[in-house]
Amino acid sequence: MRALTVEPGLPGSLAVTDVPEPRVEHGELLVDGLAVGVCGTDREIAAGEYGAPPPGRERLVIGHESLGRVRTAPPDCGFTAGDLVVGVVRRPDPVPCGACAHGEPDMCRNGRFTERGISGLDGYASPVWALDPGFAVRLSPGLERTGVLLEPASVVAKAWEQVQRVGERSWFAPRRALVTGAGPIGLLAALLAVQRGLDTHVLDVVADGPKPELVRALGATYHHDGLDAAVADGEPDVVIEATGVSSVVFGALAATAPYGIVCLTGVSSGGRPIELDGGALNRELVLENDAVIGSVNANRRHFTAAASALATADPAWLERLITRRLPLERADEAFEPHDGDVKVVLDVTAG
Ligand code: BGC
Hints:
Elements: E1 2-6, E2 15-18, E3 29-38, H1 40-46, E4 60-61, E5 65-72, E6 84-87, E7 90-91, H2 98-101, E8 114-116, E9 120-121, E10 128-131, E11 136-139, H3 150-167, E12 176-180, H4 184-195, E13 199-203, H5 210-217, E14 221-223, H6 227-230, E15 238-241, H7 246-253, E16 261-264, H8 278-287, E17 291-294, H9 300-312, H10 315-321, E18 322-327, H11 331-335, E19 343-347
Parallel strand pairs: 8-9, 12-13, 12-15, 13-14, 15-16, 16-17, 18-19
Antiparallel strand pairs: 1-2, 1-4, 3-5, 3-10, 3-19, 5-6, 6-11, 7-8
Helix pairs in contact: 3-4, 3-9
The structure holds beta-D-glucopyranose.
Beta-D-glucopyranose (BGC) binds next to helix 3.
């Protein structure tokens, strides 16, 4: 069958190639792929900067933002043919570490986890894939066109769960949230903020394109004049940082209300030092009981929470997040960022 593959470490190696059909191990689902989403991590892998193939192989099937329909399911596994499913990305390390042993591989302590479509395991950019039901999440049938947003939504559901848990170390009644970055992660973070009843603000750099309207359609406030202006009429209790831009990251740490929480989700490349008054920042964090947490990946609990969040979102709004849909054969175009892109999706159906 055809699949979108890449040789990790080799820039320019992304191509549709022929790969063997998946072997369905005992107890697994066989799934007809519908779509994969393309994100910054995929672009890094295609640029040769990230990722690892399965052991003994050179090429990796890419694609960790999945959506498919179950073709066959073993009896009594909780899934049946026709179910809309998404695959969890990370698998526990083989040791396993304490976190992986407790079903929280997103918090793996030894870094020996694998990730489908990223590191050590084939991903979902093919017309058929096999999936352990323990790593499958069912979606409501209404999400047939937009369920591919579940993986990025799971990352955001984890971020919000972490914020809640950190907040609950004392009295916690957040009112205002700031999301920095209006890409897919930022917009989905804003969706979940609005669903939590928060006065939600989103900061990005662009003044036009789909982002301002997508934010306003949520009932949130869009800002594009920098961080200071975005917090001028009120400091946020919670910041979800989704740019990875150092000046925004450190600016956000200093811009929260007392007992503020900043959750960092943007993976930056490094190598761009900035000047920072570390003492002043430390003083503010200490004197305000502020907290900063990093958050990556998501376990099955977060995928399930995200599935509920998407099921209650406005379907038309979710649809507008997907700004380009292309067939697998046009992956090169999909991997080339365009102005006005929010989420780019590849159709992986057979044909
Ligand atoms: C994925 C995560 C993954 C991370 C690092 C992100 O793009 O959404 O699931 O853990 O990359 O590999």
